[in-house]
Amino acid sequence: MITEKTLVSDALRNSKAAHKVFSKHNLYCAGCRGSVQDTIEKVAENNGLDIKKFLSELNAAAKK
Known about the structure:
Layout: H1 8-14, H2 18-24, H3 40-46, H4 51-62
Helix pairs in contact: 2-4
């Protein structure tokens, strides 16, 4: 399960479908150096995303 404390790099590594969710929100974290340091919460906050909705999308994608 992806939580707000999950590192972006872990979310992307554990779910290939998560890449689509990030791209949908114009987040290209796979190539970003910060992906190994930033949490899902930080990315959502820094990009004006609703954390609950973003997590819901990521976890739904991870189940596919």
